[in-house]
Amino acid sequence: MPDRRFALIGAGRIALPVIEAWRAGELPGWQLEAVLTRQPRQIEGVRSTTDAAAFFSGVYALIVDTAGPAAFALHACNALARADVWTVSAVALADPQLLAKVEETAQRTSHRLRLLHGATAGLDGVAAACVDPEAVLHLQIDLPPGGGPPGVIFSGTVREAARRFPNSVNVAVTLAFAGAGLDQTRVEVSHPDPAMPYRLALRVTSRYGTCQVETFPKVGPGIHPVAASIIAALRNAQAPVWT
């Protein structure tokens, strides 16, 4: 079976570990065809371009967006018109107009948009719990360290959090899509204590029981948990037995 061709939108700290994994042969069954970048750059072994029209003229089985909410909002429908799309920038879909356009494009083309879990865990548990229409999902999200004195700075719906913190609550929006929705899911957003690790947490209660998850993501040179989620998803998509 020939390798499936995929492309990346973005070439930053999330995309680069994915590119390195592909170069190292760690993504069997995939061929990286192109990368759409904001600034001109050379990427060894891969066609890179700043020209969106040239990028979208390619033929791909999958386009993976890593470039952030603004870029996703700009390119989502164009990408979906050509291939299935995965993104880690779910927060852009808090805009009802963009969501409607994305859904219309997906229905018209039979392509699908997947929201990857990124730096959090528990997406499957939330989805299963929210089969119960009375399920209650509550999220706690730390902002990146150093932004202000420790403490809760927002408590409300995920949709409102997405408006206020458009670059920091992608995981909350993804979890809300898996659950009861952006207007029914509550979230607390906090500035973390500098002495404590960066934290993302969820608790969902339903007639099936309670699921409670905490993650403490770490980011370093060449290491990004969101990149790891993309690598894992690409591997899983090609596995003969998958989860």
TrEMBL record:
Domain Aspartate/homoserine dehydrogenase NAD-binding: 10-114
Sample GO molecular function, one term: aspartate dehydrogenase [NAD(P)+] activity
InterPro entries according to UniProt: Asp/hSer_DH_NAD-bd (IPR005106), Asp_DH (IPR002811)
GO BP terms: NAD+ biosynthetic process
Pfam (any one): Asp_DH_C
Sequence ranges assigned to domain Aspartate dehydrogenase in this UniProt record: 150-213
PANTHER family attached to this UniProt entry: ASPARTATE DEHYDROGENASE DOMAIN-CONTAINING PROTEIN, L-ASPARTATE DEHYDROGENASE-RELATED
Protein's name according to its UniProt entry: DUF108 domain-containing protein
Organism lineage string: Bacteria, Pseudomonadati, Pseudomonadota, Betaproteobacteria, Burkholderiales
